[in-house]
Amino acid sequence: MKRSFASFCAIALLSLSSGLFLKGSMAGAAIGQPTPQLTEVARSPRLWNVVAVSAEGRIFASFPRWLGDATPSVGEVMPDGSVRAFPGDDWNQWTPGASSQRRFVNVNSVQVDAQNNLWVVDSASPRFGQPVIPGGPKLVQIDLVTNQVKRVYNFSPEIAPARSTLNDVQVRDGYAYLTESGLGAIIVVDLKSGQARRVLANHPSTKSDPTIVPVVEGRELRDADGRVPQTHANAIALSPDGTWLYFQPTYGPNLLRVRTADLRNTRLSETDLGQRVERLGKTVASGGMTVDRRGILYLADIEKNAIAMRCPNGQLKPLVQDSRLTWPDGGSMGRDGNLYFPVAQVHRLPRFSGGVDRTEKPFRLFKVNTQSVQC
After folding, report:
1. Cβ-proximal residues to 306 (8 Å cutoff; 6+ apart), any chain
2. Domains in the chain and their CATH numbers?
3. What is the DSSP letter of 351?
4. Which alpha helices (H) appear in 156-284, and where do they start and end?
5. How are beta strands 38-44 and 363-369 bridged, if at all?
6. Alpha helices in the chain (DSSP H)
7. Cα–Cα distance between 210 and 192 in angstroms, integer?
8. pTM, whole model, 2 decimals?
9. Longest pairwise C-alpha distance within the chain
10. What pLDDT, in 10s, does the model give residues 6-39?
């Protein structure tokens, strides 16, 4: 049953205050199903936060500069587990003060589309909380047949303001949909014309709930000043038929969706578009989500060191839980039925650990087979 956004916000706050929010959110696992095998694929000395897998099985990863590392910003994971900078040339050679036009400043996400293009989201903000480098925010299309940059979509300050953080991306049918988690919005890009629109920027669906305090590995996630970082619209996924865009702020508390046709409709006012956002019920605190062809959503559960799955009927179940999954992040479904995802250890960064880098090297990339999963 659909409810107005105001009513579901009230329900979410009531659930939170009563201590029911997120507790037992993975208690609906089917009994008797075999536990999927968690397999390590590769290791990296640098932090990676999102992976993308092509139809041929090529694996790409984004490497944000959250620890001040240099290169690469985008890498291809080779069959032997090593990582090479991709696509080459100067794209992975940005340094402070250099031009950001044809260089990656701070890559936050990668995705491969059905036409074998790799899409790279450059937020152009080198560190958490820092303003973007002017002229730097962009979406880059790379042809995986030629391994060459095909087109660069630069975003103006109206689309990517100084305090914005371009985050995840989904591409289908000539449009790209990006979440913006710094201020909270969804960016819709017409890939033919290059025109971009910033929508739902004043709607509560794209905003983090300041009353939620996530707990990761037994510690509340807080900045050095004691504040909970407000990460707004973050994880997104498209339904298998492309009709719906699923999204949520990092900590939830609800999974949301909106029709892609409504996002593309330039005649809808912001108010009308906001009224078409639907609440689908409680979710987990997650930095990334992936969908398979059956419509099962896989959510990287940062509080439980786990991957949760949301069935088409709305039920949340555990897929895999393991102590090694310290802040699992943005994943990708391979044609082999494996869900690939990196472990980012975001909560161990100096920003959240009293100025001390508590990450454990190397950073790991895992896969788990989903073919036997049943809802």
Report:
1. 26, 318, 319, 320, 321, 322, 325, 328
2. 5-369 (2.120.10.30)
3. G
4. 260-264, 270-275
5. antiparallel
6. 5-17, 260-264, 270-275
7. 38
8. 0.90
9. 57
10. 443 443 333 333 333 233 334 334 445 667 889 9
